[in-house]
Amino acid sequence: MYAFIFEAPSSTAAAAQIIAQGGKLLAGGQSLLPSMRLRLAHPEKIVDLNQIAELAGIRREGNALVIGAMTRHADVAASSEVKAAIPALADLAAHIGDRQVRARGTLGGSVANNDPAACYPSAVLGLGATVITNQREIAADDFFVGMFTTALDEGEIITAIRFPIPKRAAYMKFKQAASRFSLVGVFVAQTDSGVRVAVTGAASSVFRHAGLEAALNQSFTPQSATSVKIDASDLNADIHASAAYRANLISVQTQRAVQQMLG
Questions:
Q1: Which of 48, 148, 232, 237 could tie 8 with a disulfide, CB 3.0–4.6 Å?
Q2: Are residues 89 and 7 in the same domain?
């Protein structure tokens, strides 16, 4: 490590003022701190959001759940409100990393980081959620731009995410055994506007699969998902899996998600 200035504001407004003067936001620290230890990141100022009570919490607003950006994975997983309204979201949170990661990691931190293999982005995109910041609201379809890149402006702070409550949903994750990130994760949701299928771990960023959505909107069955050819040309290939293997996993995990939703 090296010397840096540490700030711990007690309000979002105060944090925004400090960020405007330069600095790096610290939420759960699951990405930033390891990067600093490896000297891949070297911010001169860190702005800790952990003392800002207004950024945490879960509440129902009409037909949506609003979850504060600093809400821990473990709290989402354990929430009776989430389990009742969007059980797939609670299940997703319950299988992120290990207990230590779930105890410290935050919803906002995960979504802002947009790791290509993170679980939460698939739920945000799959449910058609809205990312709320201290400046505006951003639809999920406009939020995820590319690898570790989002629509957030410099200094913009996620304050909460609004998840519309679907008719039903499921998340199927094939994890990379060592990291417990998604080798491929598929979030399927039946919403008022149709079926949404979001895929994480397979490409440089989370994405919706138009072919699977079209097939499942026509016939919501595992067999319908099986009939869709998954193009592997833009998928990741690494020491853990080939692009073709990931393409097959997208199909299989979608089929499993649909089967679970059908009971």
A1: 48
A2: no
Q: Are 131 and 158 a contacting pair, CB within 8 Å?
A: yes
Q: How many residues does the chain have?
A: 263
Q: Which domain holds residue 184?
A: 168-262
**Number of structural domains in the chain:** 3
- Asked whether residue 104 falls in the same domain as residue 195, the answer is no
pTM summary value: 0.95
CA angle 202, 173, 198 (to 5 degrees): 55
In the beta sheet, which residues pair with residue 194? 191
